Amino acid sequence: MASFPGTIFDQTTLPVAGSPRAAPTSPSALFTQLSEEMTALETALGVNFATFAALALEFSNKRVDARSWQQNTPGATPMSALNLNSYDVFSFTNVSTGITAMTPQSNASPKLGDVWVFFFTDNGTQQSIVWGADYVSTESGLPSSTKGGTTLRLMVIGTWNPATALIECVGVS
Hints:
- The protein is α/β, with parallel strands linked by helices.
- The chain folds into two domains: 1-62, no CATH class; 68-172.
- It is built from two helices and eight strands.
- The protein has helices at 27-45, 49-60; strands at 68-72, 89-95, 99-102, 115-122, 129-131, 135-137, 154-161, 166-172.
- It has a six-stranded mixed sheet with strand order 1-2-4-7-8-6, with no helix packed on it. Strands 3-5 form a two-stranded parallel ribbon.
- The longest helix is centred in the first third of the chain and has 19 residues, at 27-45.
- The radius of gyration is 28 Å and the shape is elongated.
């Protein structure tokens, strides 16, 4: 265990009050001693624990919005190269021709845990999708076409695998 001079963690050194302390005899005495020790530790480290706690609480109650990109009538080569560094969700609407190149940008720098979601909505007619060599099918097969004649969206979930340097398709609905 780390030793912090003058704290309840190390009773052999001089505490905040200047002399060795006896163990607290009541909850209020323990609270007072802990409060003094926290103040001393904050001063020694130059931090404010209350600020850290408030920031943690504020962050834990926030929603993180996905970075999304939408293209209407994308044509055969939507966004000639997908920008995986800037977006998490890609939505292609009114797909009216087969997509022949689903290729991420060559300068993409995905990290372990990165996840991308692709939505395809066709114009009512089934359209083909050709996935680039950077995609591989795992638990769920990569779809080769949209769901023609419906307004349902085809959602493909891909995640980065650093061991293979490929985007793995892990879910289709």
